[in-house]
Amino acid sequence: MKTKKHDTQWMVSVALMAAIVILLANTPLGMIQLPIIKATTVHIPVIIGAILLGPSAGAILGFVFGVCSLVSNTMAPTLLSFAFSPFMSTTGIPGAIKAIWISVGCRMLIGIVAGWLWILFNKLKVNQIIALPIVGFVGSMVNTITVMGSIYLLFAQQYAQAKDVAISAVWGLVMGTVTASGIPEAIAAAVLVLAIGKVLIQVLKRMNFSFIDAQTAK
Known about the structure:
It is built from seven helices and two strands, in the order H-E-E-H-H-H-H-H-H. By secondary structure, it is mainly α. The protein has a single domain, classed as Orthogonal Bundle (Arp2/3 complex 21 kDa subunit ARPC3). Strands 1-2 form a two-stranded antiparallel sheet. Helix 2 (about 45-55) crosses helix 4 (about 90-125) and helix 4 (about 90-125) runs antiparallel to helix 5 (about 130-165).
């Protein structure tokens, strides 16, 4: 009976976090439109969900995030939507598969890495005030680095054409995006994950959510 209660609490919590991801992904706060790419804050509930509910929940929430990104880039395409939506592929089925990896696979990695990093900190008994912002920062950088790195590795030629530059300039542009967009996003994630995560951990503990004690550092 206790295990069933645990499973029900966990599934309901994942569903609630997924609803937050979907809500953010469909508002200007979640997907901020820039000239070339959509900057995002949707990774923040993915990271928090991974901390509270574990890597498997983080992977599910990352999957939801990725699907929302795929849909967004299909319905409101930008110059780089070919790298995020299989329906915008300019290189047929191979390009479609690559786009699914970037939009969905890379986002699942956010939750997986954040969840396991939090478990590591928990085992090492790292204070929450230190662990939470680190996990937030790393989780956000996983998003930026895997997405932009995959674009460079898989779509360098198409990226160069979209930006109307030589292919030799792609690396510099990718690193520029990581620096100008990825690092500020990661800093914001560190602050928000600390502020929101610490409160949610205490609230869920007081509500006797049994899985919290197993996932959170003391």
